[in-house]
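Budget justification note: compute hours in this period were largely spent on complex prediction jobs such as the one shown. Inputs:
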Amino acid sequence: MYSELNRLARTQEERETLKEELQSLYDSLYEKQSAFEECLDKVRPTTGETVKRLLTEGKIADRAKFIKEADKYLDSLTILELTVAFDPKGKSIERIWEWTRRNVGEGIVLKFTLDRLLGAGAIVTYQGKIRNYSLSRFIDDYFESSKPSLVHLLS
Amino acid sequence: MDTQQLFYGTIILTALMGIVLGWVAISYRKLIEKYDKIRSTGEEVEKALEAERVKTLEEAKTQAKQIVSEAQTRSGQLITEAASFGNETRELLGKELQKLQAVELGYYQKALEDTKLTAQTSLGSISKDVRQEVVKQIDAVRTSLTGEIQKVQMETRQMLSASYKKMEEEIGVYKIERLKRVDEKVFEILKDVSTKAIGKSLSLEDHEDIVIKALEDAKKEHVF
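Corresponding output:
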């Protein structure tokens, strides 16, 4: 059930935003009676709609417990860090996240770090493992292996 | 018998006087030779020698006079004691004594003259020898200095040559190192330019594709 929330928290930033929204909803439970519904309208539409649907479909009466469980689920997501040479937005995030969901599995949250010196590609960091698949590394390797011929060419 | 004793006594005395005079003369000559050896000490030595020579001459004269005087006194005493001598003997003795005195005096004077001449020659040659010695020493010093200068020049030349060679080697190494660094820098620039140029030429979709490709490679390498 909570895996639905993963789609709202594809990246580290989105997860933080969603956690803040859930906290707002949780806080509203202890305000006036209509506060929770009002808060659902204030959060991102996708968040409001998903929470409403999950509460309805799950027939959940204990909203506070639901929010706490959702928060725990978000904390349990595994981070896949990608250092990239461009600033990924909407469609790009969706495409990359979909690939990871299909190929790595559910419960992944992407953490993007921008480094334009990479040129292209990515440095992948996952559960302590790091691999550099960037263009800069490719070019480094190329220059290293072609050094003698390049030196000859330059001289 | 007494006359004969007196005669022999006179002869012995005169011989002793001759020996003494000879000894004085030899001593004086030795002294002069000694002075000759230390003549290299220069003008002061020369002056000292001169003073010493005069002093020695004076002493020698005094001693000679004293000896002659003593001999005469002793002869007179002997003659007086032998008052009983005959006239003939006395005349003979007197003549012999005069002869001996003349001979001894002649020896003495000759010895004195010889000594004086030797002293004068020695002292006269001192300044000349000193000058020759000084010139010789200066020549030796000059030769030694010339040798030393040549040696120092040669050593300096060798040292400079070695330093120059070392410097050239160091410059060679430095040049190679710098060229290597320049090459490295050129490669770095080429890499940066290539990376940036390729990166900028890519579209958003291309970037996405390459990131997906990176993820696929990571999966192949069992990163996930």
